[in-house]
Structures are given as C-alpha cells and as structure tokens.
C-alpha cells in the first residue's frame, strides 16, 4: 500500500522484451536501499524490484500490467514517479493508494497558472461514478484532489512542489496517465450495487 506522496523520479535506462513482458532497468537515488521483491510504485503501478547496483534496479511489467497502464509507452530516458510502500508507523500524507491501476485517462489540457498548474483529463464514461469533486485520485501514483468535474472527465490542480518533483512537469495534452480511483469509494459503490 502507498500514500501517493512521490519520493523521487527514476530514469529509464534500458528496456528489454521478455515474451509478453517488459523488463525496465531504472536509475534512482533509492536503488541502493531496495531489497529483492520489495514493492515500489512506478507511475502508480506496484511492481516488485530486483536490485542491480547502488544506482540501478530492474522491474518486470507483465502483460496484464502493460494492458492497463501507460508503462507500455515508456522509452529510454523517460522519468517515472517512484514511491516505496507505506510503513505502518508513519504518517499518511496522501490517501490510501494500492498501486493497482484501474485504467488510463488522457490529458486534454495543461495550463500554467503562474503559481500552480491545472490539468484536465478525459476518462471513460463508465469511470465517472468514481469521481467526486474534492475527492481523491492517484494519477501516475501521485495523490491528488479532484478540483472539478467536466463534461468528459475532471480537472486537478498541482502545487509547485508536486509539479517540480514528479513527472507532471513533462506532461502535455495527449499524454496517457495511469489512474487509480479512491479505493474507499470503489468499495462503497460495489456494496451498494449488490443490494
């Protein structure tokens, strides 16, 4: 489990194809601290790591993960948002993020408001039921608040720190983003639908 508070950016150094999987070699400041099979969120997708050196580690994205996420679009040189799993003795600064991507949303606009940034995303109409104004959402693993609902999706506001320390600073209209809707809302809706 994660909180959606990104620790560092990792840089894709190599990508290998293994049957239907992709193996990513990632350079990151946390690489030397990682243990074999430790869970790390990569753009919001929980992947198990294989340490390589103090600067590099590898992760494998299996077919199912590639179908549901934007990891399939990564190329050497891209940056991914990284977060290690939540410690039970720490503060939860974001919200509960499982690292299980629900799907992809598409950035349709990115605006610099000279002090903050606003991003608007289009989503699948079937997913609108998970969106609540001022509710939580994780985009590329970042814990965010939905600022407003639009006719085709939603918008979010990004504070300067988050913009500078995540891959939102490289995001443009047309980019696909991993989305994990608020798990508490999903459980509520699922249980209501069973009545």
Describe this structure in words.
This protein has helices at residues 63-68, 160-165, 183-193; strands at residues 8-18, 21-27, 39-42, 45-51, 56-61, 79-84, 103-112, 117-122, 136-139, 142-149, 153-158, 176-181. The protein contains three helices and twelve strands. Helices cover 12% and strands 42% of the residues. It has 195 residues and is mostly beta strands. It is globular, with a radius of gyration of 16 Å. A six-stranded antiparallel barrel has the order 1-2-5-4-3-6.
Please give a handful of descriptors for the protein shown.
single chain; 195 residues; mainly beta; 6-stranded antiparallel beta barrel; 6-stranded antiparallel β-barrel; 3 helices; 12% helix; 42% strand; globular
Mean pLDDT: 94
Structural class: mainly beta
Sheet-strand content, in percent, reads: 35-45%
Helix share of residues?
10-25%
User: Numbering strands along the chain, what is their spatial order in the largest sheet?
Assistant: 1-2-5-4-3-6
Report the biggest beta sheet as strand number plus sense, adding barrel if it closes. Answer: 6 strands, antiparallel, barrel
**C-alpha Rg, in Å?**
16 Å
- Report the strand count: 12
Write the layout of secondary structure elements.
Blueprint lengths: L7 E11 L2 E7 L11 E4 L2 E7 L4 E6 L1 H6 L10 E6 L18 E10 L4 E6 L13 E4 L2 E8 L3 E6 L1 H6 L10 E6 L1 H11 L2
Antiparallel strand pairs: 1-2, 1-6, 2-5, 3-4, 3-6, 4-5, 7-8, 7-12, 8-11, 9-10, 9-12, 10-11
Short description:
This protein is mainly beta. The chain has helices spanning 63-68, 160-165, 183-193, and strands at residues 8-18, 21-27, 39-42, 45-51, 56-61, 79-84, 103-112, 117-122, 136-139, 142-149, 153-158, 176-181. 34% of the residues are buried.
């Amino acid at each position: 489990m994660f909180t959606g508070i990104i620790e560092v950016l990792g840089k894709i150094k190599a990508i290998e194809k293994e049957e239907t999987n992709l193996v990513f070699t990632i350079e990151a400041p946390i690489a030397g601290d990682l243990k074999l099979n430790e869970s790390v969120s990569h753009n919001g997708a929980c992947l198990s790591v294989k340490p390589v050196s103090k600067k590099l580690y590898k992760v494998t994205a299996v077919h199912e993960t590639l179908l549901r996420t934007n990891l399939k679009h990564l190329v050497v040189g891209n940056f991914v948002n990284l977060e290690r799993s939540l410690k039970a003795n720490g503060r939860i600064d974001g919200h509960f993020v499982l690292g299980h991507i629900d799907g992809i949303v598409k950035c349709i606009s990115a605006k610099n408001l000279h002090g903050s940034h606003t991003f608007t995303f289009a989503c699948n109409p079937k997913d609108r039921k998970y969106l609540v104004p001022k509710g939580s959402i994780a985009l590329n693993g970042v814990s965010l608040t939905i600022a407003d609902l639009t006719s085709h999706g939603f918008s979010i506001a990004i504070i300067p720190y988050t913009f500078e320390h995540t891959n939102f600073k490289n995001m443009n209209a047309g980019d696909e983003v991993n989305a994990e809707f608020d798990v508490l809302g999903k459980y509520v809706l699922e249980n209501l639908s069973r009545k």
